[in-house]
Amino acid sequence: MGVKLGILGLGTVGTGTVQLLLDNLGRHPLLQEIEIYRVGVRSLSKPRTVELPEGVITTDLESIVTDPAIDIVVEVLGGLEPARSLILKAIRSGKHVVTANKAVIARYGDEIFTLAEQAGVCVMLEAAVGGGIPVIQPLKQSLSVNRIHTVIGIVNGTTNYILTKMQTEGSSFEDVLADAQKLGYAEADPTTDVDGLDAADKIAILASIASGCRVDLSDVYCEGIRQVSKTDITYAEKLGFVIKLLAIAKKITPSLSSPLSVRVHPTLVPKEHPLASIYGVNNAILVEGEPIGQVMFFGPGAGAGATASAVSSDILNIVAALKTEKAINEEILKQELENKPTSKIALHNQLLTARHQEDCQIAPITELVTQFYARFLTKDQPGVIGKLGTCFGTHGVSLELVVQTGFQGQLAEIVVVTHDVREGDFRKALTEISTLEAIDSIPSLLRVL
Amino acid sequence: MGVKLGILGLGTVGTGTVQLLLDNLGRHPLLQEIEIYRVGVRSLSKPRTVELPEGVITTDLESIVTDPAIDIVVEVLGGLEPARSLILKAIRSGKHVVTANKAVIARYGDEIFTLAEQAGVCVMLEAAVGGGIPVIQPLKQSLSVNRIHTVIGIVNGTTNYILTKMQTEGSSFEDVLADAQKLGYAEADPTTDVDGLDAADKIAILASIASGCRVDLSDVYCEGIRQVSKTDITYAEKLGFVIKLLAIAKKITPSLSSPLSVRVHPTLVPKEHPLASIYGVNNAILVEGEPIGQVMFFGPGAGAGATASAVSSDILNIVAALKTEKAINEEILKQELENKPTSKIALHNQLLTARHQEDCQIAPITELVTQFYARFLTKDQPGVIGKLGTCFGTHGVSLELVVQTGFQGQLAEIVVVTHDVREGDFRKALTEISTLEAIDSIPSLLRVL
Ligand SMILES: NC(=O)c1ccc[n+]([C@@H]2O[C@H](COP(=O)([O-])OP(=O)(O)OC[C@H]3O[C@@H](n4cnc5c(N)ncnc54)[C@H](OP(=O)(O)O)[C@@H]3O)[C@@H](O)[C@H]2O)c1
Ligand SMILES: NC(=O)c1ccc[n+]([C@@H]2O[C@H](COP(=O)([O-])OP(=O)(O)OC[C@H]3O[C@@H](n4cnc5c(N)ncnc54)[C@H](OP(=O)(O)O)[C@@H]3O)[C@@H](O)[C@H]2O)c1
């Protein structure tokens, strides 16, 4: 039948996708009906590792998204602009869209999905979260019969690689980061990864799809891993935990209308928890719901092959829907109608599109109820533990564990693990504690899963 | 619109499913369009934990599968008959079918899917493998753009529970089995689980869906866990392995037309492998393909809630397709046709149905190439290790490791781990070795992942 693709971008993901689609034997047979019709890039002179017929590659991206011959636009440019505008224009031109662009979806998802709904087209984004791991589609389909209350992901490979290396080799954040940069696991400017921004984009998307609400990047509370020291990793280990950068979306009460807490932060994960054993650049997404309980998806979070798999699976889903549509239109034409239908019948399966009909409230981080781990450097006065305890007690923070773990120079090091507390209460206690004469500093503050 | 279900069976899975469907707020909104129209059971007098309107429950199962009002038949009876015949009759009556019955699908899948294809209906079976874990649907959709060469599952909770307990508590197979029976994790007659038969059903199904071939239970080579002793678990641990009952479907060469090896056996799994950390009654399925690499799905392999989630997700998929179908038929009727279409247009998305177009060859177990672990009891003669080595050498079996691990009474215990060898060659060597005067017995023989 020939479904025509316009692909925007021929970098890591674009090239991987083109390779997969050109080499289609032994894959789903529907892929054989796809034609790579146009590919948009910035530079025509750059050498490419895939061979495409003369004239397919162009620098005129606008002409792709408006070309009447094209059925599906695949946006794998990255960045906010021109990606966002091209996606919107493609939708307005009646194209289905497949994108790997978490940054655009996390910021402009509302605008994009609203427009797509009006235009009757699908916007698919499996590659935006978890690389090759099928998680968006299972959340929209199989898992959507559950009341999902929790999604927890290790969704950034770079930070998981850094934390894993810090743990297994006892190295410092700075050293591992420098190594990761040399190995190509971290960018020259690592901010997006190490400050949690990439994970924040992804949890906004997962939260939206799991909850049926539109969760925006601005709803996500975000802390990165720069503050995690090897000292903390060692203490955590002794206490039975590993430290992971988790992206969490969780209803804060069991009620159906409970506010959602959506956040990214380094977290102490009990060693026996399934997420504790996810090492290196791998990603994993854990979903909890009623009545299913706990399921987890694990796999490569990035890379040309993994991402190409995700992008192509989105394309495949649309091709299958288009094929049905086409069969029906032909069937209708065969009926020798007097009034032939003038427009195609849109019949994109409701399970392909995300549902965004729910009204949701986002819980401010101060309302989070969690256990905390905090490390204090104190002047080694008698009674400093007593003072800490009193201060916490005043604010209703009860402690599970207080250990004087050793000395750093003149200063004594004290680690505290609380019971479940309201974050707001805990922060008030901390503010007061930080004014105590005996307290030198509070170098780390981590949440416990 | 009202999609009408006929549910066969109201046991663990049936009751879980009915509970989920009756309590549908906060789940996918399409579930609200479902009506539980008939439920078939054996005994009307049995107390039920779900309340259904008068007249819904019946013992006349035949009348359900032929009732023209019913759109979808959900078979959760278990057993081979009458389940198989009722499924076939439902298909002949034009009903879509959802089943959790791995035993029927592994044996009669060919008959059932062929008939379903002719009748233009879907047969869905997410609950048959991996309980609540979405794995069938991802294999049919997202992952099908890959060339999948390997599927490895821990798909039987009972045996994984037993092996986990043997490992963590150092108990014997018999003691743990007795405990598991008391706790309800193992049946009074544990054969189906401990002899690997349940896992064999499941890997036949996974192999079919992943490869696009029809793999039958009779194609599966199967060994259970009765031969696994605590001695082996201890040695395996020392060598860096845990023992798991794995269900494996794997192409034996990289070529597209490679024969498939499909098998269930206890296996030494390297501790750092993702499947090594799957403990207790949990299930996990690992899929490897090109270009995605390795992805793994983890979750509860059984239980009312998990299975209800899987069954309901299959129902949801069909409801979504039916809804599209209905919208189209209405659209067509609106066109004021002269010749109104007399039959419904079948438009079941090709991604819902499994593709079974490939021709496959099953590799006999003798052609498997793998590492082996074997434990020998020998008369403590000087030179016995030399004799073993010579015998293996003659048959082209090279050894990675030979350890005399200790004594059992008068007999010396020797553990051997081979390099990759053809299973046929290894077995010939073993046959010869077992005739050696110095060899008392070969109590265990395990493969290494
Ligand atoms: N890489 C991964 O592993 C991965 C994983 C998941 C998601 N993603 C997402 O996938 C998207 C693409 O990532 P990538 O790694 O493939 O990026 P990339 O390697 O930098 O490739 C970007 C491609 O887009 C083209 N391009 C960029 N801006 C353009 C413009 N203004 N006009 C025309 N062409 C333009 C570039 O053209 P030239 O080739 O001419 O320079 C290049 O072909 C991003 O949204 C990223 O977040 C990537
Ligand atoms: N249990 C799990 O966790 C699980 C997980 C995955 C898959 N499965 C599969 O799901 C299926 C059902 O399992 P289950 O655990 O729900 O079984 P179950 O608890 O034994 O329930 C079986 C139900 O079927 C009815 N039934 C059985 N034979 C019948 C007959 N000949 N005529 C009329 N009714 C009959 C029984 O009726 P009465 O109630 O009147 O006795 C009962 O309601 C099996 O194929 C199983 O392999 C189960």
From TrEMBL, chains A, B:
Positions annotated as active site in the UniProt record: 202
Can you tell me which residues bind NADP(+)?
A: 8-15
This protein's UniProt keywords: Amino-acid biosynthesis, Methionine biosynthesis, NADP, Oxidoreductase, Sodium, Threonine biosynthesis
Name the pathway it acts in: Amino-acid biosynthesis; L-methionine biosynthesis via de novo pathway; L-homoserine from L-aspartate: step 3/3; Amino-acid biosynthesis; L-threonine biosynthesis; L-threonine from L-aspartate: step 3/5
Ranges where the ACT domain occurs? 373-449
Question: Which positions are annotated as binding NADPH?
Answer: 102
Give the record's GO biological process terms: methionine biosynthetic process; threonine biosynthetic process
Which reaction is this enzyme known to catalyze? L-homoserine + NADP(+) = L-aspartate 4-semialdehyde + NADPH + H(+)
Q: For this protein, what is the EC number?
A: 1.1.1.3
Q: Which PROSITE patterns match?
A: ACT, HOMOSER_DHGENASE
> Which positions does UniProt annotate for L-homoserine binding?
187
One Gene Ontology term of the molecular function aspect:
homoserine dehydrogenase activity
PANTHER family linked: HOMOSERINE DEHYDROGENASE
Its recorded name reads Homoserine dehydrogenase
